[in-house]
Design brief:
This protein is mostly helical and about 260 residues long. Helices cover about 80% and strands about 5% of the residues. GO terms for molecular function: phosphatidate cytidylyltransferase activity. It catalyses: a 1,2-diacyl-sn-glycero-3-phosphate + CTP + H(+) = a CDP-1,2-diacyl-sn-glycerol + diphosphate.
Length: about 260
Amino acid sequence: MKQRILMGIVMAIIFLIPFYIGGDVFTYFSLILALMVFYEYSTIINIRRFGTKFFVGAIGVILLFSPLLFEKNADFQISSLLALVVFFITATVFNKGFSIEKAGTVLIGVLYFGFGFSSMAEAHIEKGLAWTFVVILTIWATDSGAYFIGKKFGKRKLAKTISPNKTIEGSLGGMMTAIAIALLLQLSLNAYENYLEAISITLLVSIAAQIGDLVESGLKRHYGVKDSGKILPGHGGVMDRMDSWIFVFIGLKLIGIV
């Protein structure tokens, strides 16, 4: 437990420094996180480490950051994605062990992590430090509230086949905790336009965070792994810590908030 707490503090410091600086520093930091998570993902789905397919996928992740890093437009992103599709489909023809299902799985990872982390960096640029900070604290509050309330009062399973320890009571408790924290943060930071917006976005973020957590749980259960990696002692991999974040910022991007 002490190791887990100490590592949590170190992780928070490492993240908060570039987060506070913002700008290109946080954008490049977000890209590094995206590449680290893609690496963990590639090991889970059994793509050869630092092989051709891994490198092409990593380039795809970088290209999804292109509007933020290289001032490229959406057309460049679309062209990049089409090139990735062509490459991986062609790879299934010339590599007997590389199935169309595996090609699709790699492409999903490129899109999920590339858009997820680039959307987080974009949120910081477009909405500012305070707004993005409140969103991230909402995710943390949801996770903590769901854990402690679920442990104390949880009885009904939320998704038994994917994550047996998660309960409906814990899920609702996580949402209520997130709303309470968001209202306190709104009072002190005034990150949202009003309290109604604060509650609405908090509910959206809280629900998306829990779905993101279940998505990764389903992935790991499918491939029979406990953690996405071992880089963070006591916490597993980077994906294990940021699975909720990815889904949240993609969701905020999709509905036009970011």
